[in-house]
């Protein structure tokens, strides 16, 4: 039967399914590679939802306001703004392309009428301002309404330009460009709770920036060995503590998490806390290290816990206990016996993200075959749902899915060998206060809402 | 579409398979643990060798694969099954030679039954002679403990002495690891021919580009490597196009 998650007897249904318009090159399958969504993020109120794609574009959706005339439209997200954040670049010194793919978007808390977000590709972080314009000045003296310059000798009367209403226009302007600070590929950005600084992390270094200063940054973590031959570990993700502006964590490819305090030293090479689960010797194989590599780390909203995602599990850690996680959830353990194949087709290197719900009671992460999983930390129930066209008819309720691991396959189950590994859900987001989730499936964005019966 | 089991993972029976323990592996239907381990090693080396030509390879993935290679080598060293003949053959490693690697997915407890401990092991003397020819690497003695590390050497480092690397390159593991950073064509000579060093130093100075890596000779030289093995004439032409473009940029700024 349906296992309710995240509510009282509630179930998940589709709010909006958005197909991003196809632009640019289409490959043999007809899917434009540039439209593959590479990051999804709600802003702090949940009113806006930003997506970044492989083509360097950012698309922002805005939630429909409640309206008495059309009550059923409440909760729908519609396109608010689209802009090209990053362009492809060429590094002449290394003879390499720099991909324009947006790796991460992070919103700044709103402080005035405009919205601000950070978006980053492999090398450059940009601060974008998104603002609305609904008035325009009319009645210039030196130019006419079309913008053509008027002959000054023809002007006999001076008038004061007035602001007149116009159709709402949303414009995005780049306010800061933070470049040339990363040798390796940026995998994370995180806004500090002081709202004055943020950090950017690449494979080997983490830099601290002030929003106002673009020509310098402070290096706060550096794990590059003096001799690159000795490189065995890289940084995979990093995040600031939600409340303590001096604290941050970063995860590694060896499955460890380090918590650092910036007050102790300028260069945080010594961690304040070191989180690592001892290896289970009975489960050891040549793939143990690869599947222990952490692909995402997220603080809970409370700041008391961190959640990590590795290839097969999601783990919740208490900041006060370093020697093991307090909770471990199996995402798709049926893949454990298939690691060799997944290594060969490179799927074992897929980086799945994980998210908390607003109350930190439910966690969510993606899997293959367009499946995504939710785990209720209190009831210990979990559910597997699928983001697909068939499930996203308006008001359709998502049916829980199940993977059959062996033996007899029931009617609604899908066998492990039938899973489509090209359909992976790497990026998801959860509304900060409501049960609304955004799920990115390749180039499609699905928004689901928990409908209370 | 069966995306799960990639081509090449079908089980194969090897005729005359060289199993150093001289066991019945060739007769068994399921390839032995050693064979599967070798197959995994070959696959990993192929993965490291295949670099994206235009986009920088993913460092995390490369590190994880390299660590896997090292683990396999360490285990093979302890077994005494490590042979440098493998190293010579990896240049020709292809996916066709891969075998089903189910056994490797099992935990170590399960594997204990299937694993054979050799009576003795020794290093092939070719290893030492290979390394002696490859003078640029700082090789320590070919001892069992250091063998894995030697194979790691030069894997990540930016080549600082390109002149020493001219000359014959055998298809050794080291070369394969080097291509990871260099993305160079097979022959290192292609990389360094037809290049005007002095221009590039000027370029670096004028544009004032700041990178955190040391701008050794090799880094600047790398940019003239062409992704395909074209004749040196066309290398020149593409180089000139690059130079023209760079001059344009300098002039505009």
Automatic annotation (TrEMBL), chain A:
Gene3D superfamilies: YVTN repeat-like/Quinoprotein amine dehydrogenase. One of its GO terms (molecular function) is protein phosphatase regulator activity. GO terms for cellular component: protein phosphatase type 2A complex. SUPFAM superfamilies: WD40 repeat-like. InterPro entries: PP2A_PR55 (IPR000009), PP2A_PR55_CS (IPR018067), WD40/YVTN_repeat-like_dom_sf (IPR015943), WD40_repeat_dom_sf (IPR036322), WD40_rpt (IPR001680). Signal peptide: none annotated. Keywords: Repeat, WD repeat. It comes from the Eukaryota. Belongs to the phosphatase 2A regulatory subunit B family. This is Serine/threonine-protein phosphatase 2A 55 kDa regulatory subunit B.
UniProtKB/TrEMBL annotation, chain B:
Residues 33-80 form the SERTA domain. Pfam families: SERTA. One of its GO terms (cellular component) is nucleus. It comes from the Eukaryota. InterPro entries: E2F-SERTA_domain_protein, SERTA_dom. This is Cell division cycle associated 4.
